[in-house]
Every structure is written in C-alpha cells, then in structure tokens.
Amino acid sequence: MLTYEEARRRVIEQVEKGAGAPRVERVRILHALGRVLAQQVKADRAYPPFDRSTRDGYAVRAEEAGPGATLRCVGEIKAGDAVRSVLAPGTCVQIMTGAAVPCGGDAVVMIEFTKREGDAVRFERPARAGQNIVPRGSEGAAGQTVLNPGMRMGYAEMALAAQVGAADLQCFAKPRVAILSTGDEVVDIGETPGEFQIRNSNSVSLAAQARLAGAEPVLLGNAADRTEELQAKISEGLKADVLVLSGGVSMGKYDLVEAVLKALGAEFYFDAVAMRPGKPAVFGRCGETFVFGLPGNPVSTIVTFELFATAAIDLLSGTSARPLPLVRARLSQTLDEKPGLAHFLPARIEGRGAEMRAAPLKWQSSGDLGALAWANGFIVVPPEKHRIEAGADVEVLLRRDLL
Ligand code: AMP
Ligand code: MG
Questions:
Q1: What is the pTM of this model?
Q2: Which residue among 28, 85, 336, 381 is buried most deeply as judged by most CB within 10 Å?
Q3: 234 with 223: CB under 8 angstroms?
Q4: Cα angle, residue 179 at apex, residues 174 and 181 outer, rounded to 5°
Q5: In terms of Cα–Cα distance, which of 186, 202, 273, 288 is closest to 244?
Q6: In angstroms, rounded to a whole number, what is the distance separating the alpha carbons of residues 395 and 380?
Q7: CA distance 174 to 22
Q8: Which residues line ligand 1 (CB under 6 A)?
C-alpha cells in the first residue's frame, strides 16, 4: 500500500502529465485574490519614479551638513509637489516623506537631528551622501517584469500590480470541482433527517476546502447507494475538471463507487493509502476528469482532501503544487497507535517556533467533527513509529483554513 507521501506524489505526477492548459480569463484586480496569473506584468515606469525621500527632514548637500553646520532653509517640498529647481549651495529645503528630492541635494537629514531658528537650520550629526533617499529606478526599471505567469496573487502581488497600473489581469480559470456525496443514509442539510439518517456535512466541508484551494465547487448533492443513480450523478460530475466523491469506497456490500467508475471507463492510480483515517481513498481518471473517491467519515474526507485533492487543484490552476503546511512541535502526551499506517490525529497546537506544542484531542474516531472543530491541526504519526513519548518532536499538519 502507498504511503500518503507516495500517494500525493502520484497525484502530482498524473495531473502534471495529464492536465491540459487551463483557460485564461480577465479578472479585475480587486477580485484577483488567490488567482493564478496567466500573464507577465511589467513596470509602466521607473520605480520610484523620482528620487524619493524616506524621512521628514531637510534635503541637503551632505558635505555641507556636518555636525555644527548651519544652512539657510529656502522652502519646503511635500509629497506630490513638482520639484524643478536646483538646491543652491549653502541652502537646504524642508522635505516630507514621499516627496521628491531636488536636484543638487544628495541626502535627507531627519528633522529629529536638526535645530531650527527662523530660516537657519543647524545640523547635529554627520550626513552621508544618499542617506534617506531611494534613488529613481532603484526598485525597478521601466518595462521590467514584476510578476510572472504561474504566480498566485496575494495581497502583496495585488498591490504591486496596482502600483504599475495593471487594473485588469489575465488569470487562469479556476478548476471546477464537482462534489458528490454518496450514501442511502445521507439527506440534504435543509431536510430533517430521520432517526437513522444523517445530514450531508461532507459536501459542505468539501465545498469550503475546494474554494480555499482555489477551485470553483459545483455541488451535485447526494447519490443513493444504487448503481444506476451513482452512474447518472457521476456522469454529471465528469463534466467538471475534478470530481470528488465522499463515501462508498470501503469494503461494504453497498460501497459501489469504484465499480461504477470502472464501468464508466475510469483508470485508477491508487485505491488505498496506508493512513488512518482515510485508508480507502482512491484516485484515478475518467475521460478528462480526475476523480477522488474519499471515504465518507467526515474527518477522513477532510484529511484526504487536504493531502491529495489540493495538489491536483493547484496544478489545474496553472501553478505548482503548494507544499503541505507541515511544522514540527513538541508532543504533550505519549501516543500509542496501530503500526503500519500513518495516523492523523486532531490536535490543538499552541505556542510558536521552538516552543510549539501539540496536544492530541480526545475523539471518537473519524466521524467526530466536534473534536475537529477544536483542532487547529493534525499530529502525524508515521507508520513505523507507533509509540511516541511525551516531549518528543512530532510533525503536525496545520489546518490551512486557520492559518
Ligand atoms: P462510507 O465511506 O460510505 O462507508 O461512510 C462512512 C461513514 O461516513 C458513515 O458513518 C457515513 O454515514 C458517513 N458519511 C458518509 N457520507 C457522509 C456525508 N456526506 N456527510 C456526513 N457523513 C457521511
Ligand atoms: Mg456509504
């Protein structure tokens, strides 16, 4: 059986090999958060566009503004002022942060290190040429590429695009992820379940996870555990870029998902992973669509989506697969788990850096969403190391939605 790392690598391999180039669409900059860029963005002019003062103070010729020197102040320049005149020898000019340094001036002395009486400004410290000035073009030349295709637009990238005037951006279309839950016992969240029925919480967590991963979820509801109904709804799901199914992939008599997919022509790249929860997870392809069959237990569904489906969504978004948010933490209590499988245990992670601690939460196995709502991560117990002593260093998978 594959380890979860091998299974994830297999997802990446297959999607890299089999995915076509995503569609490109125009996105308004304010809506570009999380989108993957499909174009280069270039600087429209030099940055900064003028020699910019980074302090409130006096623009001077550095060699004239040594300790004890006095210069006559001949005016002031505020941010946004047009600056055309040359700073005459023996003078200084009051200048504000963000304003252009006049020609002839080569340093800005902070106001805190000066004394002013009328027009006379006295300097207290040595001035160095270039101090408190960002020269024109030093952040970037006009025409220089500042953002490249494949980059994900975060707040910094958005601000940079805004700075150079790129109000519309060519971005890759978000992959469409169809979400279909399965099970005779599952009812829609708007319905009142019968005594032996449960609400479809998986479609809700999967939709949230798909959105967070950068995809557009397409909710297909639930299919009963019957071949014809599964076939019809799965066929609908195969119109999307990715189909994520929950439930129906275990060994039970009514776990029909794999058989139905096979009958529809699916090819499987794995059909079990050495992990708990999540062991029955399957991954394959049916026509052009990548298919994840995730076990129906809510925590299994959540963990397997995070480990496997997120990588496929990244790649189908036109960028590389982001690494899993794994960190190290100190275990707060001894663990003893079944060997041979990697375990993902809901945990509370506290502290930071070398002081990070992970406390496993009490849970009633992989159906326990209540425990998960208290968890901000999962302790990863590797398959070969079932017993881990309190105080040991463990790996923790952080919940991406809480980062
Ligand atoms: P299965 O993987 O189909 O064997 O289901 C495993 C467990 O997950 C069962 O207890 C199901 O009732 C539960 N389950 C299956 N589908 C869902 C769903 N959509 N929402 C919440 N729980 C589910
Ligand atoms: Mg089921």
A1: 0.94
A2: 381
A3: yes
A4: 170
A5: 202
A6: 5
A7: 8
A8: 181, 183, 185-186, 198, 200-203, 246-248, 250, 252, 295-298, 367
Burial class (CB in 10 A: 0-12, 13-18, 19+), 360: buried
Q: What is the pLDDT of residues 330-382, one digit of tens each?
A: 999 999 998 999 999 999 999 998 899 999 999 998 899 999 999 999 999 99
CA 20 to chain CA centroid, nearest Å: 23
Q: What does the alpha-carbon distance between residue 294 and residue 208 come to, in Å, rounded to a whole number?
A: 16
Cα of 248 vs centre of ligand 2, distance in Å, is: 4
State the distance from the centre of ligand 1 to the C-alpha of 287, rounded, in angstroms. 27
Strand segments, DSSP code E, in 118-201 are 120-123, 133-134, 145-147, 168-172, 176-182, 186-187, 198-199
| Residue 291, beta-bridge partner list | 243, 284
Q: Provide the 8-state DSSP code for 123.
A: E
Residues 180-237 pLDDT 10s: 999 999 999 999 999 999 999 999 999 999 999 999 999 999 999 999 999 999 999 9
Least distant ligand from the CA of 188: 1
- Burial class, 266, CB count within 10 angstroms (exposed 0-12 / middle 13-18 / buried 19+): buried
How many Å lie between the centroid of ligand 2 and the Cα of residue 307?
Answer: 21
Q: Give the Cα-Cα-Cα angle 135, 141, 147 (nearest 5 degrees).
A: 120
From start to end of 319-363, where are the E strands? Answer: 326-331, 335-336, 342-350, 357-360
Q: What is the largest CA-CA distance in the chain?
A: 94
- Please give the angle made by the CA atoms of 345, 342 and 253, to the nearest 5 degrees: 90
